[in-house]
Amino acid sequence: MASLSVGELQEMEVDRRGESEESGDDETRRKSINGDVDPNQPTATSKEESPVDMDTITLDPEEEDVDLVHCRIGKIEGLEVLQKAKTLSLRQNLIKKIENLDSLSALRELDFYDNQIRKLENLHNLTELEQLDMSFNVLRKVEGLEQLTRLKKLFLLHNKISSIANLEHLTGLEMLELGSNRIRVIENLDSLTSLQSLFLGTNKITRLQNLDALHNLTVLSIQSNRITKIEGLQNLINLKELYLSHNGVEIIEGLENNKKLTTLDIAANRVKKIENISHLTELQEFWMNDNQIDNWSDLDELKNATSLETVYLERNPLQKDPQYRRKIMLALPSVRQIDATFIRF
């Protein structure tokens, strides 16, 4: 494996901050967020393996947390004995179809991360389900979830989904992860009024829109898309973390109502001036590396953020100044970390 430069490593760090951290292992998650996963290659599981017969796997009828990770399971069968199971992990197997789960009505969490599943189906009896992870499969659409009205967390990272649809019944959903898919439009989210975290990184989205109903949203990640304008966020008054790195944004704007922001990530865009954020007094982290900032007076926009601890400004014209770190420290005395390096006192 080729070694990464310091800049590439730091860029990966920026990207990673804005993605959900509950689905998948660290390595595959890091690669997927940065677009490094080859969709034609297996991830953590080798798809060349031969599936095993479920009869060879011992199941405990008393077990509530069932872990069948990387067991080379090819077909779901014989799980009827797991009547007491609350969580079932089938990640990193060779499963192609969701089936034979009807009797597991007590399940709260179901994990199919890294399999070969092509369709969301046969889940209608799992009405107690609160968390479903279908990341790293080959799903082309969101469907078959109508009965899962208690679902709180839904992970669909790294599939082949082209549109956001069929989620209107999931009114209790708090986290939705749709990163690394083929989505072009933000749509059909109006009924998800309980949603707190929305992850849409690494898609093909061109516009921030149709977010007005998400009053409870605190985290929005839309990194590595095709956004050119910050807009459509006026109703997200509870937003605390906004991740917009690796887009085509040229002007910082449209954040007038987002006064609760503690993290703002606009790294790797086309911004020439830090502006229109002096009202963001609760900012703790500001990521503006890999832009075109060249005027030290721009830092005045951050002076009202008295709790600001982390600032990323590397790979801007400002960094060419021999007094780069010193000037940031003088302008922003609360800061404890500049780029990837902590300040020594």
UniProtKB/TrEMBL annotation:
Residues 1-52 are annotated as: Disordered. GO terms for cellular component: nucleus. It holds the Pfam family LRR_9. It is found in: Nucleus. Keywords: Leucine-rich repeat, Nucleus, Repeat. Residues 321-339 form the U2A'/phosphoprotein 32 family A C-terminal domain. Its main location: nucleus. Transmembrane segments: none annotated. PROSITE patterns: LRR (PS51450). SUPFAM superfamilies: L domain-like (SSF52058). SMART domains: LRR_SD22, LRR_TYP, LRRcap. Belongs to the SDS22 family. This is Protein phosphatase 1 regulatory subunit 7. It comes from Astatotilapia calliptera.
